[in-house]
Amino acid sequence: NAGVTQTPKFRILKIGQSMTLQCTQDMNHNYMYWYRQDPGMGLKLIYYSVGAGITDKGEVPNGYNVSRSTTEDFPLRLELAAPSQTSVYFCASRIMTSGKETQYFGPGTRLLVL
Amino acid sequence: GENVEQHPSTLSVQEGDSAVIKCTYSDSASNYFPWYKQELGKRPQLIIDIRSNVGEKKDQRIAVTLNKTAKHFSLHITETQPEDSAVYFCAAKYSGGGADGLTFGKGTHLIIQP
Q: Which residues of B touch A40 (CB under 8 A)?
């Protein structure tokens, strides 16, 4: 299994541009998450999904959108990029089983907005 | 919502000594507390976790303790080695329905001095 994969690894955007960060997992996990990590800080939850067709906001959802049309994919959309969205973005997933809480993280996407 | 405080932000110890990192949480409903290790430029990886029905858990040189009354939990690393150098994050969540996703502390940069 490849686990959780993310593309691209690195991207530079101009203010006002849009882009989609891709996340795919091949572990048949129900739950998927998007976090952002600012320099020297912990991770903050942007959005999460408990299954295909179901998404919900996390702590910092403004400026982002998500969709979950399949179990495997959970893309994150930035519509109008702003410098405040410069960050490292991590996707994560976990299985929906009682007692199984471990979240598996992807390698991250480093985004720079200029 | 949940708030997690983590101390210290930087911890330097001699190789072979012990290291202790402490976290407090605000939501008494939280019942799952993982610890993640993140090496420079890499993804966070789970090293140990504990549930609120357990006071202590050990895994070789790593242990976590939980005090539900005081709402704090700690990571203990004994016989530290150079490969323990990394940033460590504590996190908390309520596992039992409702909103999902982890709330992270800001991280502790652990430096192992040779």
A: 106-107
Contacts of B100 by beta carbon, 8 Å cutoff, 6+ apart: A31, A33, A48, A50, A56, B93
Tens digit of pLDDT for each residue in B23-44? 999 999 999 999 999 999 999 9
A87 CB within 8 Å of a chain B CB: no
Mutate to test the interface with B, among A101, A102, A109, A110 (most CBs of B within 10 A): A101
Q: Please, what is the average pLDDT of chain B?
A: 94
pLDDT greater than 70 at residue A98: no
Closest CA to A4 of A21, A29, A35: A29
Nearest to A31 among B43, B91, B100 (CB): B100
pLDDT > 90? residue B16: yes
What average pLDDT does range A86-103 have in this prediction? 87
Alpha carbons within 13 angstroms on the beta-carbon side of residue A109 total: 26
Q: How far apart are CA A3 and CA A26, in angstroms?
A: 6
Stated as kind and residue range, the H or E segment containing A7 is strand A4-7
